[in-house]
Design brief:
heterodimer, A: about 425 residues, alpha+beta, Butyryl-Coa Dehydrogenase, subunit A, domain 1, Butyryl-CoA Dehydrogenase, subunit A, domain 2, 3 domains, three-stranded mixed β-sheet, 9 strands, B: about 140 residues, Nonspecific Lipid-transfer Protein, Chain A, five-stranded mixed β-sheet, two-stranded parallel sheet, 6 helices, about 35% helix
């Protein structure tokens, strides 16, 4: 009898070991998260339930440490993109909001973690904290109140809309600005990766700066969490930087390279987003399969009606297509030695935007279609579908939203010159 | 220098693990409430004429026993690792990474993956200790 493990996953590229890592997260979720999943929405403000669970995954299960070099206390698991996709998929099957909180902990660290551009000096400073026995969380502070998609539209806006500034004063950066919506903002994160400009209004790509700022630095303050339609396990607040001083060495790399590896982060973000869509769709598959098997309409199981069968087929097709596409691109990202393209190259940034677009549209369609056939039951909390339906909408909204994703994808495939 | 694989090599690796502060520290909880022993199956090729088995009993950061076996026998280890001699050799030489070998399926590891994830730093330290001393190799 087919189940979620029968959907496409190329064994040539995803070893049993990596699949088993995902299954550890699956088992953990079954034991620890699913019993409280329906309570997470009420936990949006204080994360009394979420925070201990975050520690279990990031610290006890070693997900933070998995990405850091051995020399600083990590386990340095290779083929990072594939690993992120497996974790994203398995995690989102449980809760996409919780999963984005987990994965975004290391997201801002990727510019200094990933080979071949590791910044060992900074890793020696921050790595032991992420790999220690206490919860230490990262946060990627990109979006600003007036300029969400613009900041990530680097090719066209070239950083000119970034309002958060970094000025060098002696051997310290002085940071001023306001960020909004970052995952793990509020009281969750211990370290921010902050997108700044060293010259407001500049289109010189060398002025784009990515600087690490400890959350307890003087001059950092946060607002209260926003109450959203879903994704309650993902804390989103404002962050203000008022004359915040950090050492000069906290800049990830320097002029030009900060932007280059920021683009690499976008590629990874696209991949993780698609993987989370896949995880949600797989859980929806489980829910709708059970429902349409047990629900008897006109004397036979609901799935035995031709119209329903067609919709169920579409759900399976969307899962198969998304999974195949994810693993193909994950392979490209992990193995530039084979494909000749670096994860920071426009080719991969823009192509993975297309995957993310496809997956985000697919998950919306799948959740909505499943609800159509569950009726009011699907809309009620106890059947777990409505949470995915609410949560997964967000997957298509972040990182510039579908508009930017599609535009950047078209930019690559159609050589757009004005967009 | 010991020949890899041999009982002499096993003795050296056991000493290396037990004298490595990283192994002792990160492995202090390893195998305390679960079977933490390993059986390595090294398949022939690259100078090795037949399958060799190596058994390591590890508990609380200490290697209690490390020995060559003629066969798996009735051992039911907590973790079973299979790989070819040609793939194990560069790991023992320190030229390739054991974890990378597992992730890329050069080696197959069977056992409780939850324990591996919760003790990944110990597995890392153990893997690093394997290349901390000089050896001789068959077929070279």
């Amino acid at each position: 009898m087919p189940n979620i493990d029968d959907f496409i996953r190329p064994k040539e590229w995803v070893s049993d070991f990596v699949t088993d890592i995902g299954k550890v997260l699956r088992e953990w979720g079954k034991d620890k998260y699913l019993p409280v999943r329906q309570n997470i929405d009420e936990d949006w403000k204080h994360h009394k339930i979420v925070e201990p669970l975050l520690k279990e995954v990031l610290v006890d299960l070693g997900i933070n440490a998995a990405f850091f070099p051995y020399e600083v206390g990590g386990t340095d698991i290779p083929d990072v993109c594939t690993l992120i996709c497996i974790l994203g998929e398995e995690g989102a099957r449980i809760d996409s909001g919780f999963t984005v909180a987990c994965l975004c902990s290391v997201w801002p660290m990727l510019p200094i973690i990933l080979k071949p551009h590791r910044n060992m000096k900074l890793l020696e400073e921050f790595g032991p904290k992420f790999c220690g026995s206490e919860l230490y969380v990262g946060c990627n502070a990109m979006t600003e109140p007036a300029s969400g998609a613009d900041i990530e539209n680097v090719d066209r806006m070239q950083g000119r809309t970034i309002q958060t500034t970094a000025k060098l004063d002696g051997d310290q950066w002085v940071i001023n600005g306001h960020k909004i919506w970052p995952t793990n903002s509020g009281d969750t994160a211990n370290l921010y990766g902050v997108v700044c400009t060293t010259k407001k209004g500049s289109t010189d790509l060398d002025d784009f700066a990515f600087i690490y700022v400890p959350a307890d630095a003087k001059g950092v303050s946060v607002g209260g969490p926003y109450q959203k339609a879903g994704m309650a396990a993902d804390m989103n607040t404002d962050i203000w930087f008022d004359q915040v001083r950090v050492p000069q060495r906290y800049r990830a790399h320097g002029p030009g390279d900060d932007l280059k590896y920021f683009k690499e982060m976008i590629t990874y973000g696209n991949m993780a987003t698609a993987a989370m869509c896949l995880g949600v769709m797989k859980n929806v598959y489980e829910i709708i399969k059970k429902w349409t098997t047990e629900r008897i309409i006109a004397g036979k199981p609901l799935k035995e009606h031709s119209m329903v069968a067609a919709a169920l087929s579409d759900i399976a097709i969307n899962i198969e297509a998304t999974s195949a596409w994810i693993h193909m691109y994950a392979r490209e990202v992990d193995r530039p030695d084979i494909y000749g393209t670096n994860p920071w190259d426009d080719t991969l940034v823009h192509k993975t935007r297309g995957l993310s677009t496809f997956a985000c549209k697919a998950v919306e369609k799948v959740c909505s279609s499943a609800m159509d056939y569950m009726g009011s039951y699907g809309y009620s909390r106890e059947f777990d579908l409505e949470k995915h339906w609410r949560d997964s909408k967000m997957l298509g909204l972040w990182m510039g939203g579908l508009g930017l994703k599609q535009m950047e994808n078209a930019r690559y495939w159609y050589e757009l010159e004005t967009l | 220098m010991a020949i890899y694989p041999s009982q002499e090599w096993c003795d050296e690796w056991k000493d290396a693990m037990n004298n490595d502060p990283a192994c002792v520290e990160t492995g202090k909880n390893w195998g305390l409430d679960f079977p933490g022993d390993f059986l390595f199956e090294i398949t022939p090729g690259s100078g090795l004429d037949k399958t060799h088995y190596m058994y390591a009993d590890i508990k609380g950061g200490k290697c209690l026993e490390l020995k060559m076996l003629d066969s798996q026998g009735d051992k039911k280890p907590g973790f079973y690792v299979t790989g070819s001699y040609g793939d194990f050799k560069p790991v023992v030489k320190g030229e390739k990474d054991f974890i990378e070998g597992i992730v890329r399926a050069l080696f197959i590891m069977k056992g409780d993956m939850g324990k591996i994830m919760r003790n990944a730093k110990y597995i890392r330290a153990m893997a690093a200790s394997i290349s901390s001393f000089k050896n001789e190799y068959l077929g070279e």
